[in-house]
Amino acid sequence: MGARKNDSDRRIGRRALLVGGAAAAVGTAVLAREELAHLWWRLPGVEKSRVEGAVDFRGARWLAASSANFRWADRPDDYSIDRVVIHVTQGSYASAVKVFQDPDHRAAAHYIVRKDGRVTQMIRELDVAFHAGNRDYNERSIGIEHEGFVDRPEDFTDAMYTASARLTAEICRRYGIPVDREHLIGHVEVPGTDHTDPGEHWDWNRYLKLVRATRTAAA
């Protein structure tokens, strides 16, 4: 009886090891497939089809950021997009464009919204912009800069709020992002960041109302 029990235990143990090993192998294969989904198009001889100068937001002006300030990707197929991060340039529109085109800056956002409401796109939404200071948030979000300074509420003009709300509403529609404060966040709310933008003068209640109204009207 005892020997049989011991033998039975050993057999169960071996079976468990085999099943566990198979599960681990399957898990590893799944992880490998997921990683391959992120990387396959970067293999030698494989190129993604892109239209030079194309914009994702109708009416935006295209000015390319330095390729050192973003990572080529194929979102949302390789990384899902579920956040919009609101930034303030802490400078003029021209200065923001200059640093985003500087390869030594190592940071850039997808869009810049000017005080007069004009929108410039510098990185395609399918690519990962280095804007949030957090790799996970970079991979899952769209970054929108706003011309001005956090301590100057007069910089946040009616034209800027309206244009930015139109842009964010379209992004949310495109990727199924809920219009709420969990998914529309400020740079200051990104984990690990030392930034304070968009600051206390950014009117979140007004902004979310505008985004919701714009999205509803478009629907």
TrEMBL record:
Domain N-acetylmuramoyl-L-alanine amidase positions: 71-199
One Pfam family in the UniProt entry: Amidase_2
GO BP of this protein: cell wall organization; peptidoglycan catabolic process; peptidoglycan turnover
SUPFAM superfamilies referenced in this protein's UniProt entry, alphabetically: N-acetylmuramoyl-L-alanine amidase-like
Record CDD domains: PGRP
Top EC group: hydrolase
Keywords assigned: Cell wall biogenesis/degradation, Hydrolase
Domain of life of the organism encoding this protein: Bacteria
EC number: 3.5.1.28
Catalytically driven reaction(s): Hydrolyzes the link between N-acetylmuramoyl residues and L-amino acid residues in certain cell-wall glycopeptides
Single Gene Ontology MF annotation: N-acetylmuramoyl-L-alanine amidase activity
Protein name: N-acetylmuramoyl-L-alanine amidase
